[in-house]
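Anyone up for a design puzzle?
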């Protein structure tokens, strides 16, 4: 018979430590101290969040891995929706505003689903002076979309970059990850129209 069971108590006060509430065995003590493990992963059960968990855990949830985690999220989801940004912010214990700020600062991250193809026009100084702005305007006008948008049929996303680091071949345009040198509005339109056929 346990020690607590040998000495009943008269008290009715809840939460008060009495002889009846003292653990009677070592198993009772360890069970009482062991908190329930929190469920890992996203409440939706989406397995893509597991990739983010692994990346954050490997870096010991340090805030300085934010860009790496956002890259993994972009790879896994195709774009960074609000739910993903919130999940990353909670995992790295960062304000959502900081995560959102980083996601919107870099042109490689997208907050909207992208098209089948991407066209990134450099608007850095060298490219802009040599006609990058005209290339961008021609694409926007022809397809009826703005920078950051995707054509209604989902074929192309039009993006711009502050600088691609390809100033010697200005104006540069990146078509599906391949840098094309010395682009004109006509050359860029011809390339993109080829995707649409």
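Challenge accepted. My sequence:
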């Amino acid at each position: 018979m346990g020690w607590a069971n040998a000495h009943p108590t008269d008290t009715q006060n809840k939460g008060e430590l009495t002889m009846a509430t003292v653990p009677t065995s070592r198993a009772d003590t360890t069970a009482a101290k062991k908190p329930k493990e929190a469920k890992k992963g996203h409440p939706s059960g989406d397995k893509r969040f597991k990739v983010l968990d692994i990346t954050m855990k490997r870096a010991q949830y340090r805030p300085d891995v934010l860009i790496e985690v956002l890259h993994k999220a972009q790879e896994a989801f195709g774009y960074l929706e609000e739910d993903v940004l919130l999940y990353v912010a909670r995992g790295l214990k960062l304000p959502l505003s900081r995560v959102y700020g980083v996601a919107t600062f870099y042109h490689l991250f997208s907050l909207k689903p992208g098209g089948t193809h991407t066209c990134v026009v450099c608007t850095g100084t060298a490219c802009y002076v040599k006609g990058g702005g005209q290339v961008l305007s021609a694409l926007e006008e022809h397809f009826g979309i703005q920078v950051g948008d995707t054509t209604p049929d989902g074929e192309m996303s039009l993006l711009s970059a502050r600088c691609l680091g390809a100033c010697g071949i200005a104006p540069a345009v990146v078509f599906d990850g391949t840098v094309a040198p010395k682009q004109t509005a006509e050359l860029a339109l011809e390339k993109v129209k080829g995707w649409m056929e």
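A detail worth pointing out: Residues 1-39 have pLDDT under 50 and may be disordered.
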